[in-house]
Amino acid sequence: MHDLIIRNGSLCDGSGIPVRTGDVAVNHGVITRVGRVPGRGRTEIDAGGHLVTPGFVDIHTHFDGQVSWDPQLTPSCWHGVTSVVMGNCGVGFAPAQPDRHDWLIGLMEGVEDIPGASLSEGITWEWETFPEYLDAVERLPRVMDVAAQVPHGALRAYVMGDRGAANEPPTEEDLRRMCALVRQGLQAGAIGFSTSRTVTHLAITGDPVPGTFAAEDELFALGGVLGEVGTGVFQLVPLGAGGEKVDDPLGEIKWMRRLSAAVGRPITFGLFQNDNDPDGWRELLQVAEDAVASGADLHPQVAGRPFSIIISLDSTHPFRRRPSYKRIAHLPAAERRAAMRDPALREKILGEAPDDADPRSSLFPQGYERHFPMKANQPDYEPGADESFDAIARRTGQNPETLIYDFLTSEDTSGMIFRPLLGYSEYTLDPIREMLLHPQAVLGLSDAGAHCRLICDASTPTSMLTHWVRDRSRGARLPLEFVVKKQTWEPAQLYGLRDRGLLRPGYRADINIIDLDRLSLRSPEFVHDLPAGGGRLIQKADGYVATVVAGEITFREGEATGALPGRLVRGTRSGPVVL
């Protein structure tokens, strides 16, 4: 008698081999048989006509605080994700001096747009050191597995105090202590170290993340600990990745190449197409590929769709800094929308200029040629240039700002606008497709749990299947087997989680059953479900028949079953269980 049998599914096993029909048997949280499974199961699922895949592995999340209060880790759980890596971009909550809690919250709020009040109310602070943080995470039940990295920003502030927070260079003693704490974290179960070097990552105070300007001696010393311990990934957001102009576009990847070769550990770095240099990503990919010959292991981390913001009256919009709008900004959304439809107020707001500046506005082109109305049903993340508000205005002889105002306030539209910032320089996802196909590239950058009021890219695993495999009409698609491998086996391998990501005997029974014909993304919606009533964008999906974690069914048709089999993953996994 098996614990669980999934029968007659179209098995896409994560390895990239062609889909085949078969059964999957599970016992004690492990896959025990794949193919034709005789006998019976205590629980059986008929997957006839459905896709069966390994659970998805998301290596770029910011659930560092949310793990304190949300056992579901929404919204990732709604998109087939069964394992996540947090502690990215050099921000996190351990190690933490007791008098640095508010500062760490402000750092996370500024960099990752997670409401500070929600973090303050939701985080339990049962730790000071990184090992104590892992212990606290381990004690809480949850729906999926989580793994953590040691964040550079928290580390610097813990060791150096205000000097570290202000990006001053460390002394020899500072560096020795930081290295010791990275070693301690890795030995306790951290699976990497992270830092950020883009000047677009700012704390709520406007200060750059600690580590932004770290010299090579600091980076090589901290990276060297990974080599010494023989485990962990070095993750970073490099200078230029946030859209800023840089004098030497290859400068960052040059030191990454030398560091990886010197310490023998993989480095993964964020890579987007950048409007300042729309073809520069190709050279970075080539350097990453060439680096293999010199003993380096560089993995550009690329996104499945453009890095964008969703404009709405609940998040951000072009009128939020105008005096007349500010006078009604405190009203609930429905009342605010109704007030804005008043002709006199409409005319007033449209006639005003902002009364203060957006500190990040200089990074991205102004105007409305990259503002697209979002449909009320399946969102389109690859709209054509002729679908922008600017193009519509030119065709109809109207003002694009007026069109946007009326779209945001109408009761007959989605009220949401898609605004790509990075990765859409030429109004096509062909560059992203080319990046995804590169042998060194790894899929990531969902930022799940972060940018709560601006994006909801935690839904990327679903759009990888709907857009890239099934629906894309403005260019070539990607094979199903390739897309599944990109979300399962490949990210698990990079981070040393070699016990998952394949539908093979001995592997962890993290499994998705998906009705691919029915799979669809719902429209984003803004909700106030965070601690202290904090607001965020969420996005659900239809078509996930079931999700299984460690052999237990956690979701059926998008609804949680109540099972919480997820655990903290401490360190790397050597491979599948020998049956």
Structure characterization notes:
The two termini are 16 Å apart. Among the domains are: 89-309 and 424-455, TIM Barrel, CATH 3.20.20.140; 313-421, no CATH class. By secondary structure, it is α/β, with parallel strands linked by helices. Strands 1, 2, 3, 4, 5, 18, 23, 24 and 25 form a nine-stranded mixed sheet that branches. The relative contact order is 0.17. The protein is built from 18 helices and 25 strands. Helix 9 links the parallel strand 12 (267-270) and strand 13 (298-302). Pfam families: Amidohydro_3. GO terms for molecular function: hydrolase activity, acting on carbon-nitrogen (but not peptide) bonds, in cyclic amides. Residues 44-555 form the Amidohydrolase domain. This is Amidohydrolase 3 domain-containing protein.
List the helices and strands and how they pair.
Layout: E1 2-11, E2 20-27, E3 30-35, E4 41-46, E5 51-54, E6 56-58, E7 81-86, H1 101-112, H2 116-122, H3 130-139, E8 145-148, E9 150-151, H4 152-160, H5 162-165, H6 172-188, E10 192-196, H7 216-229, E11 233-237, H8 251-263, E12 267-270, H9 280-291, E13 298-302, E14 307-311, H10 323-326, H11 333-340, H12 343-350, E15 372-373, H13 389-396, H14 400-409, E16 417-422, H15 430-437, E17 442-443, H16 460-471, H17 480-487, H18 489-494, E18 511-514, E19 520-521, E20 525-527, E21 536-538, E22 541-542, E23 544-549, E24 552-556, E25 559-560
Helix pairs in contact: 4-6, 6-7, 7-8, 8-9, 13-14, 16-17
